[in-house]
Q: What sequence folds into this?
């Protein structure tokens, strides 16, 4: 089973992946935890911070290329019977770059169609995608508290990204309220995930 965790920065995805991995392993499951972008992809800081359409196009193609190789690694672990947990996947690219490319395409529907076509080379798709929904102000407060910024964090931009996330309809997408504690989010994830687990 392949499970992805999605949401704007500051939703607790990385922590949730770690907590879920530990819980599943305690139940006897083999688990492989991974993330995107992978360590193979290096991005200039100015590119990550840019809100230009040309930069968003470049990022979308770079992330897609990175994912194209990443899916082979994911497939390898799935063939072993392991549960794969991924911190960000295709939906992240669509939301973060789509929020900018929408200006160029003229409509959200058009940009989603285009990104879907480009992403047809990504054949490995999550069985379940947990989208952790958080208000951008809560997100910004959390990011400021941990003192780590990636270059993608701006309240107005994150609001656009959140709106884009909410408009994406993926098979297996499960939306959870991430405004509470990380323990609450973890409990919500396990409640929805447990019925799908098979020894």
A:
């Amino acid at each position: 089973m392949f499970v992805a965790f999605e949401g704007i920065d500051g939703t607790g995805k990385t922590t949730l992946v770690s907590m879920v991995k530990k819980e599943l392993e305690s139940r006897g499951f083999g688990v492989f935890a991974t993330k995107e972008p992978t360590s193979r992809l290096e991005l200039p800081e100015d590119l990550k911070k840019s809100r230009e359409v040309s930069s968003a196009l470049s990022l979308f193609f770079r992330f897609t290329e990175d994912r194209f190789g990443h899916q082979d690694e994911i497939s390898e672990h799935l063939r072993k019977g392991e549960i794969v947990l991924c911190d960000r996947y295709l939906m992240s690219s669509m939301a973060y770059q789509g929020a900018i490319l929408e200006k160029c395409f003229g409509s959200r529907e058009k940009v989603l169609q285009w990104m879907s076509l480009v992403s047809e080379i990504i054949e490995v798709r999550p069985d379940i995608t947990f989208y952790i929904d958080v208000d951008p102000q809560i997100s910004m407060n959390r990011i400021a508290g941990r003192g780590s910024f990636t270059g993608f964090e701006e309240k107005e931009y994150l609001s656009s990204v959140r709106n884009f996330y909410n408009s994406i309809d993926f098979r297996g997408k499960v939306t959870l309220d991430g405004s509470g504690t990380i323990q609450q989010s973890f409990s919500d994830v396990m409640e929805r995930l447990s019925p799908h687990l098979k020894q």
In short: The mean pLDDT is 92. The chain is about 55% helix and 15% strand.
